[in-house]
Structure formats: structure tokens, C-alpha cells
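Entry 14. Two folds queued back to back today. First construct below, sequence then C-alpha cells.
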Amino acid sequence: MNPLPQSPLLDERALSKLRWRCRRGLLENDLFIERFFRRHEAGLTARQAAGLLTLMDLPDNDLLDLLLARREPAAEIDGPEVREVLSLLRCRPN
């Protein structure tokens, strides 16, 4: 399987806007997202940000189902960017 093409890293302003957009109403989702940012924000790419924004368009309960691996992304949002970010979001702490 070929790796995804490289994408530029987000600058501070874009990262700040992304963090704001990722605020959720459901605490469980916020916990996943905060852990994701603690681990990955320094190397977050524009492609990953696009995948994350796609996930943020989902209702809270649908997002939580994806984060807990109760289901996989539906066809309309299923793409390599979403899959990549979802795997990073699902990764448990060591």
C-alpha cells in the first residue's frame, strides 16, 4: 500500500482555528480530541486537518460511535484523510 502524499504542516493560526472548531458538546468526544492534540498538534498536516474537520461535521453521538469503533465511517465521509485521523484519535495512551 502506498503512503499518502505529504501535506504541509499547519501554522499556529490554522492550528488555533482548528482547535476552536473541534470543541464539542459531549465530554467524551472532547477527551479523545484533547488527547489527539496533545500527541499530534506539532506535526499536524493540512490533510489531517481536513479529515478532522470532516469528522467534526458529524453529530456528537455519531462521532463518539466512530471514536469507540462501534462503527466505521459511512461512504460519504470515508476517505484516506478521515481514516488516518480516526486511527490517531482511536489510539489509546500507552
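Second construct, same run, same settings:
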Amino acid sequence: MTGSLARLVFPSLRWRRESFAHERSKIDAALAAGVGGFIVFGAARESVATLTRELVEQAGRPLLVGADLERGPAQQVQGLTELPPPAALGWIDDLDATRTCGMITATEARSVGINWAFAPVCDLDLESQNPIVQTRAFGADPVRVGEQAAVWIRGAQEHGVLACAKHYPGHGRTTQDSHATLPRVHAALTAAERAASFSPDILGYLRDTLNFGGLVVTDALIMAGARAAQPVPAATVGAVAAGCDALLYPENFTSVVAALDRAVGAEISSARADEALAHYDAALAAWGVLPDQGEPDLLGHAAFADALADRAAHLVRGDAPNIRVPLTVSIVDDDVGGPYTVGPRDVFHRTLREAGVSLVQRATGNLQRIVLLYAEPRSWKGRADLGARSRAALRRLVPGAQLVVLLGHPRLAAQIPGTAPILLCWHGQALMQRAAARRVVNWLR
């Protein structure tokens, strides 16, 4: 007999002011309601480990605890390992290395109690005006992307963490961001004007034609595309009725649980409810409790990541420059201005200084200039190209520069004026800043 569908619901937990304490009332209410687990965002290693241990102890049962880990476990857990973005891995095209990235992600995530990785992105990087996929995808060729995604998943799941292939049936051809609206792809599997999460045809194809037997998961329900701009409780009922098994990040989970349970036997058939619960129970049985794998080799993983970052960094315009000291470094940051804090922007400078390279703040006389261009895909931008402010700054700074370091998608190189060499480093994360600095040290004369 069908029980409560609360097990299909996964609220979010965010770390604020060095603590999860502000989430205590949410945790108590969610566990009392019987949710299936949680999603964790941005915290220190020890805090996550303590949180996940206490969640399971308080629940008195295993839970699925997920996190967005597309660029390795450090994307959400400070003190763990950063890995290059998928586009860099796709360019390197080393399946063994990509599988190792999945393994590192899993072993480190598992060590802090995370057993579900919302990764890898399996979209194709096909549309130059796509504002949100870009470097999150392994590339544009479906065969190569499929191979990369498959080995990443295998590496993760062989080491204790459930992976999640994002974003079926495909976000790569869109020119809109699903965080803000419902994107449309005209090469769709059905003519019905509904999001994939609410389409029995699209989800039926996944089950019946592609023979997928695991969890079918909504994207975060705070996103306009995920709820198709309708109230979240109604959206979750429609998603489960269409074939979804897990509902991520509803802000008011109590109203969602109530709506789901009211809908069983009406909008959601009892058979569909039982099927969804069975899929959750199967995932929990496979991934909820596994033997302790011991402490991960963080030093070894960091060395692997740095070596991989060095392989990923390469020139996309011009020849290797002859760089002299002292240097000045100018930053053009296309990622500021939105609601989210950007990552550290001083790692490149610190790495150079640690290598004994003299940096000064103002370019005068015979000083040589390096320009860092930060341009990640971010949900608030609504665009794939550089913003007007960034383009104006580049027009001012690039003439006479010895090098531009592009911490973004290689397509953006065409928007950088002048003829200065461009070193592609894919993303503004600390890992790739360090790789850029090491390359500059190698070019010093």
C-alpha cells in the first residue's frame, strides 16, 4: 500500500555565517515529515561531515544527501579537491583521467556523508548563444560526450556515490536559461507545450525506449524552468504523475508533501506513486549505506588535479610570449554584478608571488601587463557573450598587453580585441588560476 510521498522530497540546506544552525527548524520539520534526504550547498569539510552524520542519526534511517559537484567535491565543500570543468576534460580527451575525476569526486564526497552527486552534465555544447551550459558540458560531439559522461559516472558509482546525468532531454540547444524561464527546443520529442519534467511522452521515452530504470529527478524547483512558472506544489504533483521520482529544492516542502499525498489516487495514480517510491527505495538500498572507505588521499588528489589543469591550459591565439618582470595584472570580471558572490580572484597573484615574481599595481614605464578575463556561465546573466562593461574594459586594457588569460569558454576569445596571445584556462576557480600562474612562470625570461 502506498505510503507518504514525502520520501520523494529533498529540501536544501545552505551554510551561512560558518554554520548550518539557521537550518535547524527546517531540518526538524523535514525529518518529522519523512523526507528522503537533502541537498547541501557550500560549507566547510568538517561542517558537512558533522551535518550529514547528525541528519542520519536524527532520522534513524539512511538518507540520500546530494550536492552539485560538476567541478569536483570542492565546488560545494571547502577543503576538498577542485577539478577542471567538463569542457576542459572533454578537450583533454583522456577517458582514464575523466574516470579518475569521477572517482575522486565520489571518494571525497562520501567521506563527508554526501552520497549523491548532481553531475555530470551530459548536454551538448552546440549553441553559441546558450547562456548557461557552455563549459559545463564535455563538448559538442554526442559520441565523445557520451563516452566522457559514462566513464565519469562509472568512476563515481564504483566508489560509492550515485551520479545524475544532467539535463535530459537536453539543454544544449537552448538560448534561454532555465533558472529564469522555460526554454524551448523545437526539435522536441513531443509537440506538447510542457516542460520535460511534466511530459509523460518524454519521460516515457526515457523509461520504455532508453530502458532507464533509476531515479528520474526534477531540477531545483526554485528554477522557473523546473516548475514551468506554476505554483511549486502543483508542479510537483504534475511531475510525479508524469514519471518523476525525486523533487529537488522545494522551498516550502510541507506544502509539497501535503499536495503530493492529497493527489495519490487522483492526479497521481496509486501505481505511479508506488513506482516512484520503489525507485527511491532501490536507490537508497544501493547508495544509502556503504562501508567506510577511510580518509581520502587529498594530497594525491590535489596533485592529480593540478597536473590535469596544466594539461587543460593552452594558447588559443598567438605564440608563447616572452614575459619580463616586474608585471602588473589587470582583471576584467564579467561575473560580478549578480546576486551571488564570486570566488577568490587573488589566487593567480598569490601563486606568482610565491614563485618570486614581482607584481606592481600600476602599469607605468616598461612594466608588462597581463589581463585576466573571468567569464563563467552564471544564472543571472541571461547571455552567453561578454557584457558591455567587460568589452569596454578589454578595449582599454588589451592593447599593449603581453598576455590575456581567458577563464571562460574558448568561444569568448573572438570577443577579445587586439593580437595579444590568449591563454585559455576555462574557469575562474582557484585550480585554473594556479595553472595560469604556473604557465606564466614558465614563460618568464
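Quick look at the second one. The longest strand covers residues 368-375. The chain has 14 helices and 13 strands.
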